[in-house]
């Protein structure tokens, strides 16, 4: 077309970013890659093709890692780790800083390579992925620098196995590698087989930065390689990917003692209230669901619009969809690029074909070849429709309506997932009321898909657990520096002596604020050290777990009570326990056959005081994100926590789990010390007299082994802790895979409940989830 | 030159012949008060837009020519004289060196209008005789708009009598700042009536309105009161045209068109001095309002130094070498 013709049509024309440098880099590498192990590339082995999804062209050949490769990588990481950790935070900070700088220097090469490999528009890789990846390295260089001063008593986990997806290849690498290295870990990383090229370039930069050999190892290949890493001798697995695979990893690592963080799928709600800036909310959807072709775990894929503005909003939205430009991802004027692979394209087509709703597809021209799918809106859907529940992972938005804020919350939370959410309203009261009530790890107010290294990212429910970014992200890459000791199991005393009580007292379960007989109707005789019968403890069963969880869920309002009130009640419990100190001390001594009863009661009272103190002090933070935004890192209670109490210290152990949990607003189902349960059944009388609302604390007695699976597999429990002497860590972690509840288990290791390790931040952290609420502002 | 060709080259200046003129409507305060503008979200959109669209090579040359056709070439200085205005008008007729236009196949390209103070209307009209380029007059006590109301109305009438085809009025910012929406509507109505057949551009002076929400409300009210164009600034405020303000105003234009069927034009003014900025504004119009708003009956740049940068870019496009100021005629 001539200039005068274009003057009439006012077309954008083509604005291609050159692929020449990226392709030249691939040629320089021989177009074939081996594994990056111990600071060097191995010769290519059995190779597979890495294709450009926009054109189908083969970009390079990657090697499928063998078991020997993975073992060599883990061994290299293991060998390098102690020296890397010993280098110290400031020493590691220099390397992280160098990596950040190198990534910045090669920013365009990374961006073009990413777009070639993944199909995402060059604007996104250039302006979002790569700058954010750099930011993670800068931010964590700072964390390394500060580690010794700010995280006393924390140490590296060791070797971290990290498995990342294809939607943000370099960015996910950065999210995983930067915090791991900062905290003194070494890594074995597996990029997705569709998109490994920027990881190969990153490996090259590790060499240029002079990173010690073995600190970063990268192995390539399909899911089988991922399984090998999971099974290998690593100390931690960090996985980002599908919920299905995440669940398998949870099962596979159960009881292994490997730390685990999972960042999984989502079906994130995007809620538009009638007082929102509708045009901005429409534009937000472009960034929510048509960002990266909708292949974003936190994509705002469920649109919830208030009924009164639904028609107006959807009209605006459809018009906006018409101006989206789909095509060559290397073109700088493209909004939507190519879907990552033909397999994914078919999956999206299939899901949309099965829809019950009204399907609108943007009438944008699509390239003839390549993996393209048009931006799609499906309206008239309801929560009961499959597409409102299942993750599509494509540029498909599913819409429904609501009437009131509380209905919006109900619809939003009617999902197995809990990754992110957006709330659009110009009314600060509505926005700040709704945001905390959404079951999600991240909430954006009047925005979407905002990310920063300083703000934690991660989910709840089946979107996984653990956070990436911020201070909370570091807990996923550190552990207590204390040397673990094995826990000695305690067997209940046996006996046959009967010593009739003046008046028989029947110990019961404590459910919903009431004493309850066990559903099964069985009790166990409890003997003292000398064989004297002390009483009977009910044998709780799965039905009692069910009843207790029901009662705990019904006590939801506890989470909304003020921290001051929760503190008052903890003080009240302490007061009432102290008043009965002699009786409890005697009971403990009687059961354990020891003499530490008085000391234990005193410690329990002190512990209650500690958590009463913490109740209104373990609060959130405002994070320094690089925009005009209040980014709140809010501490929210997990919900209902099932906890197996330590067998030793039957009172102090129970209090040590109960108090932090309820201080933070959780409700608990406690399973008392198995050998010494009667102090727990005495304790509910203290609870009864201390204004603890019914259902906030529930106490079961019985076999830890028998109750472990019913508790851990219960779908309405958010977390399970075990400090039991019974060998139940593995079965708990395995059963927890069902709804991917977070677990905290002792793996057979001892904890001194009288010492500092018996209380404090680790307990409070386990009792809370960090929700990041982004509130951009501006008059 | 046929009418079609004239329109094609942007030299046709009777928009009412191709587009029904906005007659205005009764003040609808419900609608006005519902206008929302979330500043952070709008700024994000404004910040990402330049990165979302890129126009290169021949397309860029064509777009820059389009920008020229939309320029209200402006002089609003205390020392303006008939001679100074004549020089500007000569530039308006021949905004780009003839050899460059020939090389681009864009002969006959002119700017959209010449914009002056009242006393310069007659010299400008005389200088533009036969060119088809209209003269726009800033009016109503420009730039502050604080002279007696009857004089402001009279000023419009005088400028129209002197030959101005377009009148750029300034609104009373105090009406917006104090929430006197009826006062703003009535004032704009009176200005529109005084303009008669001349087109009226309502200058909101957005830099003095405090919030984007006020910008949205004032935009709607001026359109309801019959503005043919809404314009950001006088060029004399400390903050003039910005992308966020533009986004708010053109979204208001879109809503107004959706509800009434009348297209209102948009004129960002002040601070747009680079060819690249002009491309961003054009893409903003194209994205948010559509191609119809890329013609000079619906879109104008209020600018004095923008043309110079575009000329240099066009010479670069033609020759491949970066240009210099002195190679282009001054205006």
Automatic annotation (TrEMBL), chain A:
**Cited Gene3D superfamilies:** Aldehyde Dehydrogenase, Chain A, domain 1, Aldehyde Dehydrogenase, Chain A, domain 2
Q: Which keywords belong to this entry?
A: Oxidoreductase
- The EC number on file is 1.2.1.3
EC main group = oxidoreductase
Tell me, what is one Gene Ontology molecular-function annotation carried by this entry? aldehyde dehydrogenase (NAD+) activity
The catalytic site is made up of 263
Q: Do you know which InterPro entries this protein is assigned to? A: Ald_DH/histidinol_DH (IPR016161), Ald_DH_C (IPR016163), Ald_DH_CS_GLU (IPR029510), Ald_DH_N (IPR016162), Aldehyde_DH (IPR011408), Aldehyde_DH_dom (IPR015590)
The protein's superkingdom reads Bacteria
Record keyword Oxidoreductase present: yes
Query: Domain Aldehyde dehydrogenase, which positions?
Result: 46-479, 529-748
UniProt similarity note: Belongs to the aldehyde dehydrogenase family.
What protein name is recorded for this chain? Aldehyde dehydrogenase AldA
Q: What's the encoding gene here? A: aldA
From TrEMBL, chain B:
Molecular function terms from GO: deoxyribose-phosphate aldolase activity
**Keyword match Ribosomal protein:** no
Its UniProt entry gives the catalysed reaction(s) as: 2-deoxy-D-ribose 5-phosphate = D-glyceraldehyde 3-phosphate + acetaldehyde
Keyword Lyase appears in the UniProt entry: yes
A matching Pfam family: DeoC
Biological process (GO) annotations? carbohydrate catabolic process; deoxyribonucleotide catabolic process
Q: What is its EC number?
A: 4.1.2.4
| SUPFAM superfamilies reported for this sequence | Aldolase (SSF51569)
Q: Which GO terms describe its cellular component?
A: cytoplasm
The gene that this protein is the product of is: deoC
Metabolic or biological pathway: Carbohydrate degradation; 2-deoxy-D-ribose 1-phosphate degradation; D-glyceraldehyde 3-phosphate and acetaldehyde from 2-deoxy-alpha-D-ribose 1-phosphate: step 2/2
What is the name of the protein in this document?
Answer: Deoxyribose-phosphate aldolase
Q: State the organism named in the record.
A: Pseudoprimorskyibacter insulae
Sorted alphabetically, which keywords does the UniProt record give?
Lyase, Schiff base
Identify the CDD domains for this entry.
DeoC
Instruction: Give the family from UniProt.
Output: Belongs to the DeoC/FbaB aldolase family. DeoC type 2 subfamily.
* UniProt-annotated stretches for the region Disordered: 1-20
InterPro entries (UniProt xref): Aldolase_TIM, DeoC, DeoC/FbaB/LacD_aldolase
